[in-house]
Amino acid sequence: MKQIRPLVTALFVTSFGALPLSAQEVEEEQGRSLMEEGARLFLEGIQREMGPALEDLRGMTEEMEPALRQFVEEMGPALSELMGKVGDLSAYHAPEVLPNGDIIIRRKTPQEIDPVPEGEIEL
Questions:
Q1: Closest to 93 measured CA to CA, from 79, 123, 113
Q2: Which of 13-17, 86-90, 105-109 has the weakest average pLDDT?
Q3: Does pLDDT of 18 surpass 50?
Q4: Residue 111 has what pLDDT?
Q5: Are 116 and 88 in contact (CB under 8 A)?
Q6: What is the bridge-based pairing of β-strands 96-97 and 103-104?
Q7: Is 103:97 a contact under the CB 8 Å cutoff?
């Protein structure tokens, strides 16, 4: 009897150790697949709802493309020259509209320009 007990114990341990997944692993796998399925259904719903709007946007961009190309060809050099003169836009205040309709853009003084600390990124 003493010789059979270790054999039965060994068979018992190996038979349960050979199971492919424990109950917890099965629940986790089902949970992940349910989450994946939910995400897939959510994205399909968004795509279905946004589809017509995206098609309209595509049509509008196709209509506007020639006009935009012409604008870039004509205004591109002038805008590039202007940006070369202006330099860093953060050195200026926001544009102001005066009562007479004039628009002015004031340059910031050195005290108004906020230096960005090293190692940090301003968002």
A1: 113
A2: 13-17
A3: no
A4: 81
A5: no
A6: antiparallel
A7: yes
Measured CA to CA, the distance from residue 3 to residue 25 in angstroms comes to 35
Q: DSSP letter at 97?
A: E
Is the pLDDT confidence value at 96 over 90?
yes
- Rounded to a whole number, what is the largest CA-CA distance in the chain? 109
The H or E element containing residue 44 is helix 23-86
pLDDT (tens digit, 9 = 90+) per residue, 25-50?
Answer: 555 556 667 888 888 899 999 888 88
Q: Which two tokens stand for residue 90?
A: 């953060």
107 φ/ψ angles, rounded to the nearest 5 degrees = -80, 140
C-alpha neighbours within 13 Å on the C-beta side of residue 84? 6
* Cα–Cα distance, 62 to 71 (Å, whole number): 15
Residues in the chain: 123
Measured between alpha carbons, how far is 81 from 72 in angstroms, rounded to an integer?
13
